[in-house]
Design a protein that fits this description.
Elements (H helix, E strand, L loop, with lengths): L2 E8 L8 E7 L3 E8 L7 H17 L8 H19 L10 E7 L2 E7 L3 E6 L2 E4 L25 E6 L5 E5 L1 H4 L4 H10 L3 H15 L5 E8 L1
Antiparallel strand pairs: 1-10, 2-3, 3-4, 4-5, 5-8, 6-7, 6-9, 9-10
Helix pairs in contact: 1-2
Length: 220
């Protein structure tokens, strides 16, 4: 199974980009993560960067990654953020979404906290695989890294097939681009870089309202 990927982030109208992303790829594994620091809270950008760094660093340290390591990585990221909160009072309210995937042995593993999303495009259909941990039609998060010591993490695993495309994104993308528009763009191109730039371009034309980050992974 050959993987290709591309990621983009845009500050949008905000003074600071509180989004972060990371990718770690080997010949047999890909780990991708996007995080959206909680807006309006001190340290949102710190929290998102810490989450991504912790997840990626954890997988780089493993000799034989296993499925449950993805959830473990998010738990470790939460602990790291909580420790930083205790050390630095100015960061005591920082929090972040964290949505991560691991592609290994023709399977897609997902671990997820917050309202960033994972989508799977297959046979012309774009399907959302994660549920938002937020109040309906609001920006109020019900779950995120940094809120409490024992974080609740959603996890899922699916089989992957040739020509599948995976999309990870923060809410800056899906709040301005309709589902059918994203689906159409992914349908029209199989190149991750082209898809990423076209999604961001269309979102920009619609008028970005927030930091916006996306990661495209294509299965060949």
């Amino acid at each position: 199974m050959h993987l290709s990927y591309y990621a983009l982030t845009h500050r949008g109208p905000r003074e600071e980009n509180e989004d972060a992303y990371g990718v770690y790829a080997t010949y047999s594994l890909l780990v991708g993560v996007v995080a959206d620091g909680v807006g309006g809270n001190p340290g949102g950008s710190v929290a998102s960067k810490l989450a991504v760094q912790e997840v990626i660093s954890f997988f780089k340290s493993l000799e034989k990654p296993k499925p449950d390591h993805l959830k473990e990585a998010l738990i470790m990221a939460n602990s790291r953020i909580r420790k930083e909160q205790a050390i630095n009072p100015s960061l005591s309210r920082m929090a972040t979404t964290c949505t991560a995937v691991m592609v290994k042995d023709k399977k897609l593993h997902i671990s997820h906290v917050g309202d960033s999303r994972v989508y799977l495009f297959r046979n012309g259909d774009l399907v959302r695989l994660t549920q938002d941990h937020s109040m309906h039609n609001t920006n109020v998060l019900l779950n995120a890294l940094g809120i409490k010591n024992d974080v609740d993490i959603d996890s899922e695993v699916l089989n992957l097939y040739s020509k599948d495309t995976i999309l990870l994104c923060t809410d800056g993308l899906y709040k301005v681009l309709q589902h059918d528009v994203m689906e159409k763009i992914i349908t029209e191109s199989k190149d991750p870089e082209d898809v990423a730039h076209r999604l961001m371009e269309q979102a920009s034309k619609k008028g970005l309202i927030d930091n916006t980050t996306l990661l495209i992974v294509s299965i060949d």
